[in-house]
């Protein structure tokens, strides 16, 4: 059992309120962490402001982030185990998350070294003749970061690392289910010589700690990853702030008759069920061309039936538990509802303890919840299409728009889909679940309003200041 205070102004603080962190797999107590409140958020913002009063030069920010990357790499097994314990993520998938966090920190370090403004071509207009102008990127101010349970390390890094690279101090509220990983990251950044106040980690409920951060007048930017409902609610509450949103999805994977069916079926089996489907870009809706539908359904069902389900700490496990039994029951109810409405259950559908067996449904229709809502569970629904127009309409028939995957051998289909799918990313011959940490990642429609990846996040977290020199003829 691990015990952590909250991380405030470069020190551990114990409060009189404690959050219990339980394993989603067997309910055992993983750890206890001190919880904050609005008053602690106030102290954290003040500490962050004091830190920013002594700006860190970019080369120092870069060195700190590079050292942190190295330290996470050195502790990769401890981080992976912690993620497996508190998030219920299978250990082999947790190791991938840790490797990605190292990459995120490394790319942020590069951004710190290279971040620059632009020279403005003033003399391109007659009125600009004799003037020289450039922009510099200044830190926006204290960043308020709020993160979800499903990537407790890498998604925290996607906020903290670009903020440090941009010269912004951070107050982070991690998900209540998974605060230990974030507190361990604070330890790493302290060892990497991040001065006090630059990172404050305040666990506590979204309604109290999250809300206090959102509404704090001295926090000009909120960077939020989580559900659409909470994210857009925050956006509406503070219209005068910059609110960066990375939200949910209902990812389609579209399979044309000319596709490599083996690769596509493997992509569904792997990426529909990893971390029990609890990824914002998990494969949820499989749209398959009518002529190959029967064969493809059989291939997917066979592969999914072989997935190892069980203890996240077991090296063999591919699919672990949902984060709570409430979520398990919700997803089970959506499966049953779809079956009652005419969907065919190809595999799975049963609950065993905290686990929901990986489930594949066929003949899924757009009005079923497993199609039109974000399932966030180990369920893939297959729907057949007859033409490219129908495939586009079905894929776009969702309020969400994060990433979509298309499998086809036809360059025409590939470009047509890339043009017509309303998603932040369209991946050809790849699952919608693919992400590397330097790429621009984010959604349209209800899925969000920004792009993460250190290069992009750093720009969101800085403001451009224009400087004009008169009487200069360069
Ligand atoms: P969530 O319930 O929306 O919670 C996300 C964070 O918001 C948690 O830290 C939560 O705190 C906090 N929160 C809740 N209510 C709040 C409020 N009123 N004010 C301020 N903060 C509040 O999401 P989740 O269940 O942790 O994560 C799953 C969702 O995240 C899915 O929809 C998934 O698609 C999305 N997601 C998106 C991305 C992306 O990059 N687009 C990546 C990963 C996940 P508590 O934990 O204390 O409730």
Written description of the protein model:
- This protein has about 475 residues and is an alpha/beta fold.
- It has 2 domains: about 1-245 and about 450-465, 3-Layer(aba) Sandwich (Aldehyde Dehydrogenase, Chain A, domain 1), CATH 3.40.605; about 250-435, Aldehyde Dehydrogenase, Chain A, domain 2 (3-Layer(aba) Sandwich), CATH 3.40.309.
- The protein is built from 15 helices and 22 strands.
- It has helices at about 40-50, 60-75, 75-85, 90-115, 155-165, 180-190, 205-215, 230-235, 260-270, 290-305, 325-340, 370, 390-395, 410-420, 455-460; strands spanning about 1-5, 5-10, 10-15, 20, 30-35, 120, 130-140, 145, 170-175, 200, 220-225, 240-245, 250-255, 285-290, 345, 350, 355, 360, 380-385, 405, 425-430, 460-470.
- The strands form 6 sheets. A 7-stranded mixed beta sheet has the order 15-18-19-14-13-20-21, sandwiched between helices.
- A hairpin with a 2-residue loop joins β2 (about 5-10) and β3 (about 10-15).
- The termini are far apart.
- The structure holds NADP nicotinamide-adenine-dinucleotide phosphate (NAP).
- NADP nicotinamide-adenine-dinucleotide phosphate binds near residues 176, 226 and 402.
Relevant CATH superfamily of the largest domain: Aldehyde Dehydrogenase, Chain A, domain 1
Q: In percent terms, what proportion of residues is strand?
A: 15-25%
Major sheet: arrangement of strands = 15-18-19-14-13-20-21
Spans of at least 5 consecutive residues whose pLDDT stays below 50 are none
Secondary structure category: alpha/beta
Give the overall shape, derived from the CA principal axes: globular
Number of domains: 2
Report the end-to-end length measured between terminal Cα atoms. Answer: 65 Å
CATH topology-level name of the largest domain: Aldehyde Dehydrogenase, Chain A, domain 1
Radius of gyration: 23 Å
> What's the number of helices?
15
Please give the number of β-strands.
Answer: 22
**Bound chemical compounds:** NADP nicotinamide-adenine-dinucleotide phosphate
How would a textbook summarize the main sheet? 7 strands, mixed
CATH architecture of the largest domain: 3-Layer(aba) Sandwich
Mean pLDDT: 98
């Amino acid at each position: 059992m691990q015990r952590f205070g909250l991380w405030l102004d470069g020190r551990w603080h114990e409060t009189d309120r404690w959050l219990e962190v339980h394993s989603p797999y067997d309910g055992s107590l993983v750890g206890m962490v001190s919880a904050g409140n609005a008053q602690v958020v106030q102290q954290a913002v003040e500490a962050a402001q004091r830190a920013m009063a002594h700006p860190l030069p970019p080369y120092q920010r870069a060195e700190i982030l590079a050292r942190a990357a190295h330290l996470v790499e050195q502790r990769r097994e401890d981080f992976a185990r912690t993620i497996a314990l508190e998030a219920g993520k299978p250990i082999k998938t947790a190791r991938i998350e840790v490797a990605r966090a190292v990459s995120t920190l490394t790319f942020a370090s590069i951004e710190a070294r290279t971040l620059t403004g632009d020279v403005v071509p003033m003399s391109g207009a007659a009125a600009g003749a004799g003037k020289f102008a450039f922009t510099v990127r200044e830190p926006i101010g204290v960043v308020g970061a709020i993160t979800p349970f499903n990537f407790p390390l890498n998604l925290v890094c996607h906020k903290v690392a670009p903020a440090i690279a941009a010269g912004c101090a951070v107050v982070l509220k991690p998900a209540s289910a998974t605060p230990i990983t974030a507190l361990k990251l604070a330890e790493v950044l302290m060892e990497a010589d991040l001065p006090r106040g630059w990172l404050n980690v305040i666990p506590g409920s979204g309604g109290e700690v999250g809300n206090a951060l959102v509404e704090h007048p001295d926090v000009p930017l909120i960077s939020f990853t989580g559900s659409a409902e909470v994210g857009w609610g925050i956006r509406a509450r503070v219209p005068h702030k910059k609110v960066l949103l990375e939200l949910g999805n209902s990812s389609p994977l579209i399979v044309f008759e000319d596709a490599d069916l083996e690769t596509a079926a493997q992509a569904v089996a792997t990426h529909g069920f990893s971390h029990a489907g609890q990824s914002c870009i998990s494969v949820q809706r499989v749209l398959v061309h009518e002529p190959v539908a029967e064969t493809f359904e059989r291939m997917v069902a066979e592969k999914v039936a072989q997935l190892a389900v069980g203890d996240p700490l077991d090296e063999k496990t591919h699919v672990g538990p949902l984060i709570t039994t409430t979520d398990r029951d919700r997803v089970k109810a959506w499966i049953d509802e779809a079956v009652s409405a005419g969907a065919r259950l190809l595999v799975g559908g049963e609950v065993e303890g905290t686990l929901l067996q990986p489930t594949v449904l066929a003949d899924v229709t757009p009005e079923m919840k497993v199609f039109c809502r974000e399932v966030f569970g180990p369920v893939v629904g297959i729907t057949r299409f007859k033409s490219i127009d129908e495939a586009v309409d079905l894929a776009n028939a969702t309020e969400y728009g994060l990433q979509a995957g298309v499998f086809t051998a036809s360059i025409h289909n590939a470009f047509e889909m890339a043009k017509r799918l309303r998603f932040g990313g369209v991946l050809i011959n790849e699952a919608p679940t693919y992400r590397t940490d330097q790429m621009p990642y984010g959604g349209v429609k209800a899925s969000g309003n920004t792009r993460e990846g250190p290069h992009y996040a750093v720009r969101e977290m800085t403001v451009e200041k224009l400087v004009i020199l008169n009487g200069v003829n360069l």
